[in-house]
From TrEMBL:
Its main location: cytoplasm. This is ENTH domain-containing protein. Pfam families: ANTH (PF07651). SUPFAM superfamilies: ENTH/VHS domain. The keyword Lyase does not apply. Keywords: Cytoplasmic vesicle, Golgi apparatus. InterPro entries: ANTH_dom (IPR011417), AP180-like (IPR045192), ENTH (IPR013809), ENTH_VHS (IPR008942). Transmembrane segments: none annotated. GO terms for biological process: clathrin coat assembly; clathrin-dependent endocytosis; vesicle budding from membrane. Residues 9-144 form the ENTH domain. It comes from Arabis nemorensis.
Amino acid sequence: MKLNVVHLCSSVNAKTIDLALLKATAHTSHKPPSDKYVTFLQSTVDTCYGPDTVVTIVQRLRLTTDVCVAAKCLILLHKMIKSEYEYKGEDSFRDDNGHRNLIYDQGGSNLKLNDLNVNSRFTRELSPWVQCGRPEIPKSKLNKIVVEMKELMIQDCFSVMRLIKIRFEEINARMAKSNELIPVLARLEKCKEGFSEFSWRSKYLVEGFWSLVSKLTNGQRQMLK
């Protein structure tokens, strides 16, 4: 069965989505969801089947007691939201905010991520990443799921940094006086050390970002004197 298109028949499509989800989140594999199944599930985001796909993933996340399955579900949900897939047909139902809200509505307080089974070194490494705590980065790269989740986190950090940098460049050009900006800049400065581990991944972006933060900080302090 090819998993590269969304079938027109709703019953067949539902079964295909379920099959792809089960294979993508199998508890027997210690690897991240396969690109083949991720791509297929992402292809449903912009169709009428998108909400059902999201709900199915969240339901699996709610019901599982396996930390490996939970981690894979979170990876899938993240990729569903961040997907750049552009459906150009006339039946497009794309609504990123709608899918995010759907995830929150379906999950919310119903998630039991603190009740997952943790009974091995692999699951102990994985558990903090699933429970949204402050996970430690394993010294080895044997835990492929943690490596994948770390990579998604890094990509998000760079995306946010680019967006903030654009806004700061506008502020710097106008040099608008704002007493509320200094606390924001101070909080950003406290995050600087945390970025050092992977700043080499986008050296010019990171250096330019912190240079701009320092320039704005000094400029704002001078204006308040």
